[in-house]
């Protein structure tokens, strides 16, 4: 067994039975270019219901560099990646590479990341030059990144997913972020260190379909904005001030009409009705904004574990080989 640097791949799997073995073959084929490194492939089965776990355990039988962690239910992509990072951190990996298991993130790019890391980068994130996704996905992602960039206090690079390499030093900090509603790319952007972008072309999914339906995407977007910005809270007082100023002006107008043109006094029924619903709507939205932050606070106060593991099958790295 080689004694080079330990590079751990963190690979979340949710219902990928159709493509996972092909994925592993391609990844392994790409990594043979670097026999000087010690690779570990940490697969996290995120409560798949399609037999992905059998494929993973079979892969581990054949390749001792495979580690399998299996969740007791589906916890979501961000939590699956977190579990993989925790494992790699405990195993003392020198660097981790986070990568999707549907071949949308090309394995060859991860080796370019390793080269950048070797020349001194602490974080190398893959930035999409092009992507083969639906128009809807591209449009919603574009709108989300625009909003996030305007609101977030940390600069979070655009067109960047979770495909990235993280050095041990940076990983030590990342694993300390234990928020429950996680937006990992924001967390990584937040820690500082030397971060570099690597441009790549994102492929289409190799098999199966996206496991990120609109509802999960909205949740992730909310986690990004609520987790890294208090702008929505500040916006409440701004909206309030604007409406108050407008209502004072409207009041002055009504008084002026009454004083100077008593014959035309402002008839207010329609205005009153619309205004009431308008204000009611605004108030409910604002309560919702506060509610979102209160809800997040509540979840953090409960401080439940982030995930529950049903099965852990360590690869060779744990069995005393260093
Ligand atoms: N994934 C996961 N848990 C989930 C949803 C997705 O672990 O609840 C994994 C999935 O197997 C894949 C990666 O996260 O490796 C990205 O998911 P997907 O390709 O469906 O997202 P998209 O590329 O469409 O954004
Ligand atoms: Mg995908």
Architecture blueprint of SSEs:
Blueprint lengths: L5 E8 L6 H12 L6 E8 L6 H11 L3 E6 L5 H14 L4 E4 L8 H12 L4 E9 L3 H17 L8 E8 H7 L9 H7 L4 E8 L11 H15 L2 H30 L8 H34 L6 E5 L9
Parallel strand pairs: 1-2, 1-4, 2-3, 5-7
Antiparallel strand pairs: 3-8, 4-6, 5-6
Structure in words:
An eight-stranded mixed beta sheet has the order 7-5-6-4-1-2-3-8, sandwiched between helices. Helix content is 49%, strand content 17%. The chain contains ten helices and eight strands. The radius of gyration is 25 Å and the shape is elongated. The chain has two domains: 6-229 and 305-313, Spore Coat Polysaccharide Biosynthesis Protein SpsA, Chain A, CATH 3.90.550; 231-302. The model has no long low-confidence stretch (mean pLDDT 90). It is of the alpha/beta class and 322 residues long. The protein starts with 5 loop residues before the first strand and ends in a 9-residue tail after the last strand. Residues 100, 102, 104, 205, 210 line the site of magnesium ion (MG).
């Amino acid at each position: 067994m080689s004694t080079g640097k330990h590079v751990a791949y963190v690979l979340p799997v949710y219902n990928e039975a159709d493509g996972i073995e092909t994925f592993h073959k391609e990844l392994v084929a790409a990594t043979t270019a670097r026999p000087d490194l010690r690779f570990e492939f940490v697969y996290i089965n995120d409560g798949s219901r399609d037999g992905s776990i059998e494929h993973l355990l079979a892969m581990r039988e054949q390749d001792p560099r495979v580690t399998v962690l299996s969740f007791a239910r589906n916890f979501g992509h961000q939590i699956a990646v977190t579990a993989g990072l925790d494992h790699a951190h405990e195993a003392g990996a020198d660097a981790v590479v986070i990568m999707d298991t549907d071949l949308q993130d090309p394995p060859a790019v991860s080796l370019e990341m390793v080269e950048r890391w070797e020349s001194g980068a602490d974080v190398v994130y893959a930035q999409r030059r092009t992507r083969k996704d639906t128009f809807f996905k591209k449009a919603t992602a574009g709108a989300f990144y625009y909003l996030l960039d305007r609101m977030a206090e940390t600069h979070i690079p655009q067109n960047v997913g979770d495909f990235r390499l993280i050095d041990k030093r940076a990983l030590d900090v990342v694993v300390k972020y234990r928020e429950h509603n996680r937006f990992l790319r924001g967390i990584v952007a937040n820690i500082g260190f030397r971060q570099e972008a690597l441009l790549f072309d994102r492929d289409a999914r190799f098999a199966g379909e996206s496991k990120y339906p609109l509802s999960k995407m909205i949740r992730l977007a909310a986690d990004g904005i609520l987790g890294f910005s208090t702008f929505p809270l500040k916006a409440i007082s701004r909206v309030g001030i604007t409406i108050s100023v407008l209502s004072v002006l409207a009041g002055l107008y009504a008084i002026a009409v009454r004083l100077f043109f008593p014959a035309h006094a402002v008839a207010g029924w329609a205005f009153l009705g619309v205004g009431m619903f308008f204000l009611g709507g605004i108030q409910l939205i604002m309560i919702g904004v506060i509610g979102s932050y209160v809800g997040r606070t509540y979840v953090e106060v409960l401080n439940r574990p982030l995930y529950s593991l049903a099965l852990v099958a360590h690869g060779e790295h744990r069995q005393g080989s260093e």
